[in-house]
Fold:
Amino acid sequence: MPIIKMNIDSKLSIVLVWIALMTNLSQLSWSQSKPIGVFDGQLDVGPILHPGSATYNAARQEYTLSGSGTNIWATADEFHFLWKRLKGDFIVYTRGALVGKGVDPHRKIGWMARTSLEANSPQVSAAVHGDGLTSLQYRRTAGATTEENRSALTGADIIQLERRGTTFTLRAAKFGEPFQVRDVTDIDLGDEVYVGLFVGSHNKDVVEKGVFQDVRISIPVKANAAPGKMDLGSRLELMDIATGKRDVIFTAPNSIQAPNWTKDGKTLIYNSEGLMYAFDMASRRPKVLNTGEVKSNNNDHVLAFDGKTIGLSSGVRELGGSIIYTVPISGGTPKQITPKGPSYLHGWSPDGKDLVFCGSRNNEYDVYKVPANGGPEVRLTDAKGLDDGPEYSPDGKYIYFNSNRTGTMQIWRMKPDGSNQEAVTNGEFHDWFAHISPDGKWMVFLSFLKEEVAPGDHPPYKHVYLRLMPVAGGQPKVIAYLYGGQGSINTPSWSPDSKRIAFVSNSDVSAISPVEVANK
Structure:
């Protein structure tokens, strides 16, 4: 066997190469496993020439990704990936955009699900290109040629990818507009997959950047879950109406519902598992609000316009269901208002004298008015069907409510005496729970998709929109795309300055993270 002699420089070179190799392997392992926000790790997929990166701004709840790579296409991919391991079904959502003009029109960002981190892995991606092309792209098996299902939409900035079994669905929109949908079936990536945000430059010599806000990773209810059962975790969110920016300010492993904003702007009141809670905005902590023996409270509660009293709806089986009570905003012994149920409270007159509620009398749900101190009920609607969610406008001139009398649930309004009933929304969706801003200029309401929900139902855990519309009239604008429904925004939840709203979105607790909560 020949003896190989090496000089000191040769030995040093081998040592340096070894150190570099170990360092690269260590960095790869570190980059794959270090958490970034709600994600488990990041890495460059494929033989990238210029390394990418991902950072998280906790104060803004915003992710920034940079990435290079020749393409995410054909039989193998090159891009930067910020990923999380997920099992089973999921819904991932973001409001994202590429930064700057870019170099290649086919640079792209979006969501991706992959079987592995290998370049030729089976994958499904919800992709938005630099030239606006929006597409559901997928590789069915390792090394197979990528296919796509293009959307008619261009320039989407709302990007959502959902998996249900072996079906993947792209929901994309320009902010303010409803989703456009594309899907692909029979894609088996395995039960546990890598899911995350990506950036690809479509040019090996260029690094491109994408910014992602309002990132939500949600695990929906199982397909065979009992209908109506509310046992998923919750995110308490605030939205700035002017910008559409959303911030998670609290998460809970159980169902919290229907936040009311107090008149001083310091507290949110919500219900959970029969109790009422006061959530302090400064400390970001909830505490139980004393409601005495009334402990079956539901998500139909409302504050008086003067901010001193809260009206409750609480189940009393022997009285026929939900009964209306009032209690001081600081807590105390509730006063019973309605003698029988079901009575679901939704509105308080600006002068504090009357309450309006949805009541079932003789198997027909209608809007009723009752004195705030108790007394005889006055029936305000009598159309066949469900009339629900009544709420006064701040000037007291109208009561807004939702009704399915036309076969579609729409927002309506009427005079306080029940006269001049007229539809406000056009019936494109099933619209529920209109809430008028304190300045009287805007109306926000919840919209269900007709293909998911019957006109007389408002279940939890559906694809829903929050839509904004001028009180004076006009085209509604989508301001929030969420997984929620029942309990998300049943009650008035405007901030006192009319600049923000509060609402609840949902996910299985496995995808609820304290990292999501905005800094104080």
